[in-house]
């Protein structure tokens, strides 16, 4: 039993951003197809496969460059909470599933306690297919990088 639990993991990080929590959250719920405009070298596309933008149960196909290679992920929106500026994507199919039995990304954006700006909190939950598979630290770093680029894009839009 202990062996299986060592395959399960969680990684999280926080990124300080200048944009409002609502605007940043809105980018992932209502306008994920604009994320590629903000991060053209990292995210190459985002297509609505089924359902509606920002709605639970909707399926989105992401095309992005991770560790130097073009990667595809078919994700379902598992949870959305506009009050908390939270969205969870569960990976259904794609390159990540070659190394993980399950994978989910949660993004929650909260206004800073003091001053302007927000904190983007990324939470990755996963189960590796084997001990040989690395924890997804590079993917967490990818989340940090796209957060900064999206933040710059949102500020330029103002």
UniProtKB/TrEMBL annotation:
InterPro entries: Bet_v_I/MLP, MLP-like_ligand-binding, START-like_dom_sf. CDD domains: Bet_v1-like (cd07816). One of its GO terms (biological process) is defense response. Residues 6-157 form the Bet v I/Major latex protein domain. This is Bet v I/Major latex protein.
């Amino acid at each position: 039993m202990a062996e299986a639990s060592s395959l399960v993991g969680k990684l999280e990080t926080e990124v300080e951003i200048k944009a409002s929590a609502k605007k940043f959250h809105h980018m992932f719920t209502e306008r994920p197809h604009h994320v590629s405009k903000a991060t053209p070298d990292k995210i190459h596309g985002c297509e609505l496969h089924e359902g509606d933008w920002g709605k639970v149960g909707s399926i989105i196909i992401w095309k992005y460059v991770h560790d130097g290679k073009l990667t595809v992920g078919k994700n379902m929106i598992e949870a959305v909470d506009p009050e908390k500026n939270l969205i969870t994507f569960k990976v259904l199919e794609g390159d990540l599933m070659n190394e993980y039995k399950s994978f989910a990304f949660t993004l929650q954006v909260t206004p800073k306690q003091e001053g302007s700006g927000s904190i983007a909190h990324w939470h990755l939950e996963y189960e590796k297919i084997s001990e040989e598979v690395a924890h997804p630290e590079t993917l967490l770093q990818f989340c940090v990088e796209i957060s900064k680029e999206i933040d710059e894009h949102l500020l330029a839009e103002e």
